[in-house]
Amino acid sequence: MRITSIIVLFSLYSTIINAAPTAVPTLEKRQETEQDPGFNTNIFDSFKPLEVTASPITREYTLKLAKAELAPDGFSRIVLISNGRYPGPMIRANKGDQIVIHVKNNLNDFTTIHWHGIFQKGTTFYDGVAGLTQCLIPTGTTFTYNFTGGEQYGTYWWHSNFGSQYVDGLAGPLMHVIVYTIHDPKDPYLNDYDEEFVMTLSDWHHVYSEKLPVPNSGLISGRGRCDCSKAPQGSKCVPDNPLAVYVVEKGKRYRFRIINIGAEAPFTFSIDQHPLRIIEVEGENVKPVTLNKINIAVGQRYSVIVNADKEVNNFWIRATIVKQCIHVSPETINVNSSLNYMVTGTLRYNGAPDAYPTTQEWEEKVLNCRDVDHNLLKLNPPRPPPANPTDNFTFRITFDDFDSVGHALVNGFPFKPELEDPTVNKMMYDTTPSMLKQNQNAFVYDTQNGVVEISIINENMATHPFHFHGHNFFIMGQGPGKTPDPTQFNLVDPAVRDTVTVAGYSWTVIRYFIDNPGIWAFYSHIEWLIEMGMVGQLIERPSELKNNPIPPKVKGICPLDNDDDDGDNNNNTAKKRSLKVYKKYYKRSDIPNISRHVRYKFMRGSAY
C-alpha cells in the first residue's frame, strides 16, 4: 500500500534579501498549523503565492499517518490517510526555504515518505526510499525529514515509498511540489494568471493494492464514482458519489498544477471549451504551448493556465484512463472490473447552477500511451544539453519467472532492497560499490563534473513511465527497436523532466550532469513493476558521500545485527529486537522480490 499525500508547490517567488550583500541571512523558524493556509489547504480552494519573506525561513510541518474508513468513489474501504484526509495535506514553501516535516507513523505498519521531484542535494538520506536511502520508520514512532529545495521551483508531490502504500491513499501534493508549491518572483508567467489550483489524478482500488492490479475507478483530487451495482454483496457503496468541482470566476486566469498520483493508469486530460496553456513541466519552466488535450503518465506533473473566459456555465473536466495502456490479459485478476474509464469532474463558473455539465469533449485525438510531444516542450530560458558523456549505462527491461513468480528485470535481475541495511549506510562505511550484490542493480560513477548517458531498452510491449530521483534529465532521443540511433538525438534543445514514458519495444536515451552525490532510484513508476523488481539505483560520486555523514537520528531507526553490538545495553537490545521484527515481517521475501508482495501470478500470461 502506498500513501499518497498532498501537493507541495514551491513558490516560484524567490525570497528577497534585504540585508547587505555581505550579510548571511538567518533562517526564521515557523511552525505551520492545521489552520495555516500554507498547510492544510483544501484542494478545491484556489490560492495565491505565499507572502514573500525577507530571507528564507524554516517551515515546519507534521504529517500524521493513520488508517480510516473512507469512500473516495462511493465504495467504503480502509484507506491510508494523512492528517485525516485523502489526498493528504498540501505543503507550500517559498524558493530556498528549509522544510522540516515530522512524520508520525500510526499505520500499524512500516513506512517511508519520498518527496517526488526534490533533488535532495546534500541530503540523499532524506529521499525516503526504503533499502536505498533509509531504513523503515516503525509504527508508533516519529521520524523527521529536514531538507531544502534549494533553487528548485515548480510542482511536486509526496508519497509513501514502501510497498504499494501510496496506492492505498498515502500521498499528497507538495507546493513547490504537489506537496509543495515554490513561488519565485522571477517566474516569467507570474503576471499571466490570477490564482492557482492543485489537481490530482489517480486510479483507485477497492481492496489493498497488493492484491489487485486492475483499478475499480478513477479519481480527480480524491473524488470519483464507481458502479455500486457491481460491488460485492455486503459491502457499503453509495451511488452517485460527489464528483470533483472547481469553482472559478469569469474573467480570471487560473494556474492548474496537475499531478498523476496513480499506480499505473495514464490519463488524457482536458477541460471542455478551455484550452490548456502549458508553462511548467516537473519543475522546469517551458515556453508556452497551448493544447486541448494532454497525456499525463504516473508521476508526471504539468502546470497549465486556464482562462475562464466563457459564459457562466458548467464544463466537464475529463481525465480519461487510457485502456490500451493498462497491463492486463484474460488471466489478470479483476480483469472484468466495472471500471469507468471516463473519469470526470466539473469546472463551475461562480453563479452557474449546481448541475451536471452538458458540454461536448474536444474532437482532437492524441496518441495513446505517449507523452506530450517532447519537441513542443522547450525550456524557458533555454539550457543546452550535456555534450560529451563520460559514463554510459544501459537499462535493459525484460520479464521472467523465478519459482513460478513473475519478476521485472533490469539487465537480467530483479531489484531486492536490503531494508535493514540500505545502500547509503553501506557507502558511508566500509562497503565499496563493487561489493554490492547483483540484485542491487547498482550503477556506479565517480567522475567529477562528468555527464551520465543512460540508454533504456524496453524489450517488451508494455509502456513504462520511468522516473529518476535526484535529477531532471535531458531526453536526447527516442525510437523503435533495441538499438539507439544517435542521428535521432536532439543535441540543441531537448525536453527536460524527471519522468519519461518509454514505449513498448523501443529505446530512450537520457543525459544529465554529475552534480549531486547520492543514491538515486531509477524505475518504472507502475507500482506493480516496482514491486516485481524493475528498479535500478544510481550511485553518484561515492567518494564524496563520506563527506556528508548520515545524521544519527536517520541511522538510529536501523536495527542492529548481533555483530554490531558494542555493549550489552538496553538500546542495543531494543535494536536487536527490531531486527528480528524486520526478519519476521519479511519472511515471505526470501525469494528475489522487492517486498512482501511475492505472488504476482496475475502478471503471468499478461501483455508482457
TrEMBL record:
Key words, A-Z: Copper, Metal-binding, Oxidoreductase, Signal
Residue span(s) of domain Plastocyanin-like: 68-174, 195-352, 421-543
Molecular-function annotations in GO: copper ion binding; oxidoreductase activity
Region (Disordered): 546-574
InterPro entries: Cu-oxidase-like_N, Cu-oxidase_2nd, Cu-oxidase_C, Cu-oxidase_fam, Cu_oxidase_CS, Cupredoxin
Tagged with keyword Metal-binding: yes
Keyword Transferase: no
Domain of life according to the entry: Eukaryota
Transmembrane segment boundaries: none
Signal peptide range: 1-19
Pfam families the UniProt entry points to: Cu-oxidase (PF00394), Cu-oxidase_2 (PF07731), Cu-oxidase_3 (PF07732)
PANTHER family according to UniProt: LACCASE (PTHR11709:SF511), MULTI-COPPER OXIDASE (PTHR11709)
Family assignment from sequence similarity: Belongs to the multicopper oxidase family.
Protein name per the record: Multicopper oxidase
